[in-house]
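Worked example

This section walks through a single chain of length 312. The input is the sequence exactly as stored; nothing has been trimmed or padded.
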Amino acid sequence: MNNNQYKVVSLFSGAGGLDLGFHQAGFDIIWANDFDKFAVQTYKENFDNEIVLDDINNIDFDTIPTADVLIGGFPCQPFSMMGSELGFEDTRGTVFFTVANIIKNMIEKGNKPKVIVLENVRRLLTHDGGNTFKVIKHVLEKDLKYKVFFKILNSADFGIPQTRNRIFIVCFDDKKINYEFPKEVELTLTMQDLLEKNVNEKYFLSEKLLKTILANGSGNYKAKSEIDLKIARPLCSTMHKMHRACQDNYVTDNGKVRRLTPREAARLQGFPDDFVIPVSDTQAYRQFGNAVTVNVARSVAKSIMEVLNEEK
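Given that input, the structure is written out below as C-alpha coordinates.
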Protein backbone atom coordinates (compact mmCIF):
# COMPACT_ATOMS: atom_id res chain seq x y z
CA MET A 1 0.00 0.00 0.00
CA ASN A 2 1.00 3.63 -0.37
CA ASN A 3 2.45 4.72 2.96
CA ASN A 4 1.10 8.22 2.45
CA GLN A 5 -2.39 6.89 3.00
CA TYR A 6 -1.61 7.25 6.69
CA LYS A 7 -2.74 10.78 7.45
CA VAL A 8 -1.49 12.69 10.48
CA VAL A 9 -2.93 15.58 12.50
CA SER A 10 -0.37 17.41 14.62
CA LEU A 11 -1.12 19.43 17.76
CA PHE A 12 1.33 21.84 19.49
CA SER A 13 3.55 21.51 16.42
CA GLY A 14 6.09 24.21 17.24
CA ALA A 15 8.81 24.40 14.60
CA GLY A 16 7.90 20.87 13.50
CA GLY A 17 10.42 18.41 14.96
CA LEU A 18 7.85 15.69 15.63
CA ASP A 19 6.13 16.40 12.30
CA LEU A 20 9.39 16.24 10.33
CA GLY A 21 10.23 12.86 11.85
CA PHE A 22 6.84 11.47 10.84
CA HIS A 23 7.12 13.04 7.39
CA GLN A 24 10.56 11.45 6.89
CA ALA A 25 9.10 8.08 7.91
CA GLY A 26 6.50 8.32 5.13
CA PHE A 27 3.44 9.70 6.91
CA ASP A 28 1.29 12.42 5.38
CA ILE A 29 0.90 15.44 7.68
CA ILE A 30 -2.39 17.03 6.65
CA TRP A 31 -3.07 19.56 9.44
CA ALA A 32 -1.11 21.18 12.24
CA ASN A 33 -1.61 23.77 14.97
CA ASP A 34 0.39 26.03 17.25
CA PHE A 35 -0.34 29.29 19.08
CA ASP A 36 3.14 30.82 18.71
CA LYS A 37 3.30 33.05 15.62
CA PHE A 38 7.07 32.74 15.28
CA ALA A 39 6.96 28.93 15.45
CA VAL A 40 4.19 28.94 12.83
CA GLN A 41 6.34 31.23 10.66
CA THR A 42 9.17 28.69 10.79
CA TYR A 43 6.77 25.80 10.19
CA LYS A 44 5.26 27.44 7.09
CA GLU A 45 8.72 27.93 5.60
CA ASN A 46 9.42 24.22 5.82
CA PHE A 47 6.12 22.34 5.42
CA ASP A 48 3.46 22.39 2.71
CA ASN A 49 0.52 21.30 4.85
CA GLU A 50 -1.97 23.59 6.56
CA ILE A 51 -1.06 24.94 9.99
CA VAL A 52 -3.56 26.94 12.04
CA LEU A 53 -2.22 29.75 14.23
CA ASP A 54 -4.40 29.79 17.34
CA ASP A 55 -4.76 28.50 20.88
CA ILE A 56 -6.02 24.92 20.61
CA ASN A 57 -8.80 25.78 23.08
CA ASN A 58 -10.17 28.35 20.62
CA ILE A 59 -10.39 25.96 17.67
CA ASP A 60 -13.67 24.36 16.63
CA PHE A 61 -12.94 20.64 16.94
CA ASP A 62 -15.16 19.94 13.92
CA THR A 63 -12.68 21.83 11.71
CA ILE A 64 -9.87 19.39 12.57
CA PRO A 65 -9.72 16.83 9.75
CA THR A 66 -10.00 13.07 10.04
CA ALA A 67 -6.65 11.32 10.44
CA ASP A 68 -5.16 7.88 11.04
CA VAL A 69 -2.64 9.26 13.53
CA LEU A 70 -2.77 12.15 16.00
CA ILE A 71 0.56 13.43 17.34
CA GLY A 72 1.56 16.17 19.76
CA GLY A 73 4.20 17.26 22.22
CA PHE A 74 1.76 18.91 24.59
CA PRO A 75 3.04 21.80 26.77
CA CYS A 76 5.51 20.44 29.29
CA GLN A 77 6.09 23.42 31.63
CA PRO A 78 3.63 22.18 34.27
CA PHE A 79 5.57 18.92 34.63
CA SER A 80 9.14 20.09 34.07
CA MET A 81 11.74 20.26 36.81
CA MET A 82 12.41 23.77 35.45
CA GLY A 83 8.77 24.75 35.91
CA SER A 84 6.57 25.22 38.95
CA GLU A 85 5.44 21.56 38.95
CA LEU A 86 1.82 22.54 39.53
CA GLY A 87 0.66 19.90 37.08
CA PHE A 88 -3.09 19.89 36.49
CA GLU A 89 -3.48 22.89 38.80
CA ASP A 90 -1.71 24.86 36.09
CA THR A 91 -4.08 25.67 33.20
CA ARG A 92 -1.42 24.54 30.73
CA GLY A 93 -1.53 21.16 32.42
CA THR A 94 -5.18 20.81 31.49
CA VAL A 95 -4.27 21.00 27.80
CA PHE A 96 -4.02 17.21 27.92
CA PHE A 97 -7.77 17.13 28.55
CA THR A 98 -8.26 19.31 25.49
CA VAL A 99 -6.35 16.69 23.49
CA ALA A 100 -8.57 13.99 24.99
CA ASN A 101 -11.69 15.95 24.03
CA ILE A 102 -10.42 16.35 20.45
CA ILE A 103 -9.95 12.58 20.22
CA LYS A 104 -13.35 12.03 21.82
CA ASN A 105 -14.92 14.29 19.20
CA MET A 106 -13.26 12.28 16.42
CA ILE A 107 -14.52 9.03 17.96
CA GLU A 108 -18.09 10.37 18.22
CA LYS A 109 -17.97 11.19 14.50
CA GLY A 110 -16.86 7.63 13.75
CA ASN A 111 -13.30 8.64 12.91
CA LYS A 112 -11.22 7.23 15.75
CA PRO A 113 -7.47 7.62 15.05
CA LYS A 114 -5.61 4.31 14.81
CA VAL A 115 -2.66 5.74 16.73
CA ILE A 116 -2.01 8.53 19.24
CA VAL A 117 1.55 9.71 19.91
CA LEU A 118 2.22 12.12 22.77
CA GLU A 119 5.60 13.47 23.90
CA ASN A 120 6.58 15.21 27.11
CA VAL A 121 9.38 15.67 29.64
CA ARG A 122 10.59 12.67 31.63
CA ARG A 123 9.31 14.32 34.81
CA LEU A 124 5.73 13.66 33.68
CA LEU A 125 6.15 10.03 34.71
CA THR A 126 6.94 10.81 38.35
CA HIS A 127 5.14 14.14 38.83
CA ASP A 128 2.93 14.26 41.94
CA GLY A 129 4.10 10.80 42.99
CA GLY A 130 3.03 9.35 39.66
CA ASN A 131 -0.59 10.52 40.02
CA THR A 132 -0.49 12.89 37.04
CA PHE A 133 0.64 10.17 34.66
CA LYS A 134 -1.84 7.74 36.21
CA VAL A 135 -4.66 10.12 35.30
CA ILE A 136 -3.36 10.56 31.75
CA LYS A 137 -3.01 6.79 31.26
CA HIS A 138 -6.49 6.20 32.72
CA VAL A 139 -8.08 8.68 30.29
CA LEU A 140 -6.30 7.10 27.30
CA GLU A 141 -7.09 3.51 28.32
CA LYS A 142 -10.48 3.66 30.02
CA ASP A 143 -12.16 6.72 28.49
CA LEU A 144 -10.73 6.61 24.97
CA LYS A 145 -10.18 2.81 24.79
CA TYR A 146 -6.57 2.73 23.58
CA LYS A 147 -3.80 0.28 24.39
CA VAL A 148 -1.01 2.41 25.88
CA PHE A 149 2.76 1.96 25.61
CA PHE A 150 5.27 4.41 27.02
CA LYS A 151 9.03 4.74 27.33
CA ILE A 152 11.66 7.36 28.09
CA LEU A 153 13.86 7.86 25.03
CA ASN A 154 17.17 9.73 25.00
CA SER A 155 18.23 11.64 21.87
CA ALA A 156 21.81 10.40 22.42
CA ASP A 157 20.54 6.85 21.79
CA PHE A 158 19.27 7.80 18.33
CA GLY A 159 22.33 9.29 16.68
CA ILE A 160 22.23 12.81 18.12
CA PRO A 161 24.94 13.98 20.58
CA GLN A 162 22.55 15.55 23.07
CA THR A 163 21.41 14.16 26.41
CA ARG A 164 17.66 14.67 26.12
CA ASN A 165 15.31 12.30 27.91
CA ARG A 166 11.67 12.51 26.91
CA ILE A 167 8.70 10.27 27.50
CA PHE A 168 6.89 9.01 24.41
CA ILE A 169 3.35 7.69 24.86
CA VAL A 170 2.20 5.55 21.92
CA CYS A 171 -1.43 4.41 21.90
CA PHE A 172 -3.07 1.92 19.53
CA ASP A 173 -6.76 1.48 18.85
CA ASP A 174 -6.20 -2.24 18.25
CA LYS A 175 -5.85 -3.92 21.65
CA LYS A 176 -4.20 -7.00 20.09
CA ILE A 177 -1.09 -5.07 19.09
CA ASN A 178 2.11 -5.62 21.06
CA TYR A 179 4.18 -2.59 20.16
CA GLU A 180 7.92 -2.34 20.75
CA PHE A 181 9.74 0.98 20.84
CA PRO A 182 12.62 1.40 18.36
CA LYS A 183 15.99 -0.02 19.34
CA GLU A 184 18.83 2.27 20.35
CA VAL A 185 21.69 2.90 17.91
CA GLU A 186 25.35 3.55 18.58
CA LEU A 187 26.27 7.23 18.84
CA THR A 188 29.02 8.01 16.35
CA LEU A 189 28.91 11.84 16.45
CA THR A 190 30.06 14.36 19.05
CA MET A 191 28.81 17.90 19.51
CA GLN A 192 32.06 19.08 17.90
CA ASP A 193 31.11 17.24 14.69
CA LEU A 194 28.07 19.49 14.38
CA LEU A 195 29.77 22.86 14.89
CA GLU A 196 29.83 25.50 12.17
CA LYS A 197 32.97 27.04 10.73
CA ASN A 198 33.76 30.78 10.65
CA VAL A 199 31.10 31.75 13.19
CA ASN A 200 30.03 35.40 13.57
CA GLU A 201 31.81 37.32 16.34
CA LYS A 202 28.48 38.06 18.06
CA TYR A 203 28.35 34.49 19.39
CA PHE A 204 31.65 34.80 21.27
CA LEU A 205 31.71 35.68 24.98
CA SER A 206 33.47 38.70 26.41
CA GLU A 207 36.03 38.07 29.17
CA LYS A 208 33.68 39.66 31.69
CA LEU A 209 30.72 37.48 30.71
CA LEU A 210 32.93 34.40 30.53
CA LYS A 211 33.73 34.65 34.25
CA THR A 212 30.01 34.54 35.09
CA ILE A 213 29.28 31.75 32.61
CA LEU A 214 32.06 29.54 33.99
CA ALA A 215 31.19 30.13 37.66
CA ASN A 216 30.09 27.02 39.53
CA GLY A 217 26.97 28.66 40.92
CA SER A 218 26.49 30.95 43.88
CA GLY A 219 24.91 30.90 47.34
CA ASN A 220 23.16 27.61 48.06
CA TYR A 221 23.19 26.55 44.40
CA LYS A 222 26.38 24.88 43.27
CA ALA A 223 26.84 23.02 39.99
CA LYS A 224 29.90 22.19 37.96
CA SER A 225 30.37 24.34 34.88
CA GLU A 226 31.89 22.53 31.92
CA ILE A 227 32.35 23.47 28.28
CA ASP A 228 33.31 21.52 25.16
CA LEU A 229 31.20 18.51 26.11
CA LYS A 230 31.18 15.62 23.63
CA ILE A 231 27.47 15.08 24.25
CA ALA A 232 25.53 18.32 24.66
CA ARG A 233 23.44 19.15 27.68
CA PRO A 234 19.69 19.27 27.01
CA LEU A 235 18.86 22.29 24.87
CA CYS A 236 16.36 24.53 26.67
CA SER A 237 13.92 27.12 25.40
CA THR A 238 15.66 29.86 27.39
CA MET A 239 19.17 29.28 26.05
CA HIS A 240 19.07 32.73 24.42
CA LYS A 241 19.55 34.09 27.96
CA MET A 242 22.93 32.31 28.17
CA HIS A 243 22.76 30.52 31.51
CA ARG A 244 25.88 29.30 33.28
CA ALA A 245 27.87 26.51 31.70
CA CYS A 246 26.39 24.05 34.18
CA GLN A 247 23.12 24.41 32.26
CA ASP A 248 23.86 25.64 28.73
CA ASN A 249 26.32 24.51 26.07
CA TYR A 250 29.48 26.46 25.23
CA VAL A 251 32.39 25.55 22.99
CA THR A 252 35.96 26.70 22.38
CA ASP A 253 36.51 28.03 18.88
CA ASN A 254 39.98 29.24 17.83
CA GLY A 255 40.97 29.72 21.43
CA LYS A 256 37.86 31.69 22.38
CA VAL A 257 34.63 30.55 24.04
CA ARG A 258 31.26 31.01 22.37
CA ARG A 259 27.69 29.87 22.63
CA LEU A 260 25.98 27.67 20.05
CA THR A 261 24.56 29.24 16.91
CA PRO A 262 20.90 28.65 15.98
CA ARG A 263 22.00 26.32 13.18
CA GLU A 264 24.05 24.27 15.62
CA ALA A 265 21.05 24.10 17.96
CA ALA A 266 18.98 22.87 15.00
CA ARG A 267 21.58 20.21 14.20
CA LEU A 268 21.56 19.08 17.83
CA GLN A 269 17.85 18.44 17.41
CA GLY A 270 18.27 16.49 14.18
CA PHE A 271 17.04 19.19 11.79
CA PRO A 272 18.78 19.05 8.39
CA ASP A 273 20.77 22.04 7.12
CA ASP A 274 18.16 22.80 4.46
CA PHE A 275 15.63 23.45 7.23
CA VAL A 276 14.95 27.19 6.90
CA ILE A 277 15.33 29.39 10.01
CA PRO A 278 13.43 32.60 9.14
CA VAL A 279 13.19 34.05 12.66
CA SER A 280 15.48 35.95 15.04
CA ASP A 281 18.16 34.13 17.02
CA THR A 282 16.08 34.49 20.20
CA GLN A 283 13.03 32.87 18.61
CA ALA A 284 15.17 30.19 16.96
CA TYR A 285 16.75 29.23 20.28
CA ARG A 286 13.28 28.99 21.82
CA GLN A 287 11.97 26.84 19.00
CA PHE A 288 14.87 24.39 18.91
CA GLY A 289 15.01 24.31 22.71
CA ASN A 290 11.35 23.25 22.75
CA ALA A 291 11.53 20.90 19.76
CA VAL A 292 11.20 17.15 19.63
CA THR A 293 14.45 15.64 18.33
CA VAL A 294 13.78 14.69 14.70
CA ASN A 295 15.82 11.46 14.83
CA VAL A 296 13.82 10.17 17.78
CA ALA A 297 10.52 11.16 16.17
CA ARG A 298 11.51 9.44 12.93
CA SER A 299 12.53 6.22 14.71
CA VAL A 300 9.24 6.12 16.63
CA ALA A 301 7.29 6.89 13.45
CA LYS A 302 9.03 4.11 11.51
CA SER A 303 8.26 1.59 14.25
CA ILE A 304 4.60 2.64 14.15
CA MET A 305 4.55 2.43 10.34
CA GLU A 306 5.77 -1.18 10.55
CA VAL A 307 2.94 -2.08 12.93
CA LEU A 308 0.31 -0.38 10.75
CA ASN A 309 1.59 -2.11 7.61
CA GLU A 310 1.60 -5.49 9.37
CA GLU A 311 -1.94 -4.87 10.53
CA LYS A 312 -2.98 -4.22 6.96
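What to look for: The longest strand covers residues 147-154.
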